[in-house]
Amino acid sequence: MSWDITLAPQAGLEPAHPAPEAGALSTELLGLGQAPIVASADRALAWVRRCGAVSCTAVSVRPVSPRRVDGPETLARLAADPPEPHLLPMTASIGRGGLAVGGVELVALAKQYGTPLFIYDEEHIRVRCREAVAAWGDGVAYATKAFLCTAMAVLAHEEGLCLDVATGGELHVALSVGVPPERLVLHGNNKSEAELARALEVGVGRIVVDSFDEIDRLGRLTDAGSAPRAQRPRVLVRVTPGVEVHTHEFVRTGQEDSKFGFSVASGAASKAVAALELAPGVELVGVHAHIGSQVFDVGHFEEAAVILAEFFAPLSLSELVVGGGLGVAYVNGEQTPTQGEWAQATRDACEQAGVAPGTRITAEPGRSIVATAGITLYTVGTVKELAGIRTYVAVDGGMSDNPRPVLYGSGYEAFLPREPAARRPRAVRVVGKHCESGDVIVAEARVPDDLVVGDVLATPVTGAYGYSMASNYNKVPRPPVLFVRGGQARLVVRGETFEDLVRLDV
Ligand SMILES: Cc1ncc(COP(=O)(O)O)c(C=O)c1O
Known about the structure:
Number of domains: 3
Bound molecules: pyridoxal-5'-phosphate
Shape: globular
Number of strands: 24
Number of helices: 13
Helix content: 25-40%
C-alpha cells in the first residue's frame, strides 16, 4: 500500500490525489530544506497548508503500517478501546489486582521496585525465539541491539539462536556469560581494528563485512595464508539491494543511499566479493543484507530477496542472510506478518530466483523477538489541562527510557494496569520529566477518564529499542529490568542509583 501526493511547486495545496483515509494513516512529509516529518495525515496536510507550499514541493503520503482501519469512525473507536490483546505480552491476564504478566501483578511490581520499570514476559521471548528457529532453522540470530543484557544473551542462546552483535560492547556482553564465540555474528559499518582483532582472537562464528576499508583491516589482521582454510574466519559480504521500504527513514537500510554495505547496482558488491575471494586470510561463505526495521509488508522482503538471490545464486556460496526487520504492532488496529510468513515468502522468492537447494537461508530478527514481551510502567506525576489546547500527563520517565517517539515519531498505547480493560475516552499527551518540549512518550494517547496523579501508567510493546537506547539524559538513572515467569519476578538488570551517575567521573 502506498500513495503519493505531488504538489506543484508554489502551487498551494492541489494534490494529484486526495489523501486516502486522511486521519487514518501515518505519513511522511518531504519538505524542501526540511527534515522529514512523520505525522498523522490530518496534521501533515495542515502543516502543508501552513507552509503555503512555499517550501514544500512534494508530499509523500503512505501508511507506515497497514492498519485494519476502514474509516475515521473505526479509528476513533479503536483509539478509545483498551489496548488489543496482541499488544500485550503473551501471558498477560486480568485478575482482581489488574493486569498480571507471567502470573505477577504489574501494580504490585511497581510498588515493590518503583517506577519507571521495564518488565519482560520471559515466556513470550522464549516462544518467539522458538518460532524464529522453527521458521529459519539453525543459524538464525537474535539481533541483540533490540535488547541486550546478560540474562537475554543466556536466554537467546538457550533457545538455540545465534547472537548478532554490532559492537565490541555487545560482543563483550555475550562472551561474558559464556555464549560460545562460534554462535556469534559480528556486524557494524565501522568496526575498529580492536573490535575485529577481538573477534578474530576469540573466533566469532561469522563476520559481516561492510566496507573496503574493513577488507583492508581484515587483511592486515589475518596472518595471510598461514591458517588452514577451515580455521580462517568466516565472513559474509553485506550488500544493499536498493530496496526502499516504507518505514521511517532512520531505520531504512537497503536503499542505495546508505552508510551500510556494498551496493549491488553499482558493482561495489561484486568487487567486494572478488576481493574477499582473493583474500588469503578469510573464508567467504555468504551474502548478507538488511533492508530496514519495522517492515510490515512481506512484499518488501520478497522484493529484496529476489535482488539478493539473483546476486547470490551465481556465486556458489553457502549462506544467504536476509537480516531482520519484521515489524510489530504498536497501536490498536495494526497487523503484522508472522515470522513463518516472512521466512516462507523469503524462501519462495529465493527458490524462484535460482538459489540452490540446501543453501542456508537465514535471518536476524530483533524487534519481533522482544518488542511485545516488554511493558514499561511509570507513575503519573502531574496532569496539566490546558483549556482548548490539550491535557499533558507527565510521568516519571521519558525520552531517557524510550527515545523512539522522539527519534522516529513512533506511536504507543497507554493504559492503567489497575483497569486494563477500561475504555479510554480521554485524549491526552503523555510526556516525560526531561527538560525538552519534545520529551513525548505518547503524542496522541487515550486514557480512562478516572486517571489521577499517582496512578501507574503502562506503555506496552516497549521491549525493543527502549532499554537498549536508554540514556542518562538529565542525569536520570536508567530503570531496572525484570523478567517475569510462572508467578515469579526476577531482577535481571538493577536500576541505576545516583552513585552510578558519578561512578565514571574522575
Ligand atoms: C544488520 C541488522 N540485522 C538485524 C537487525 C534487527 O532488526 P529488527 O530489530 O528490526 O528485527 C538490524 C537492526 O537494525 C540490523 O541492522
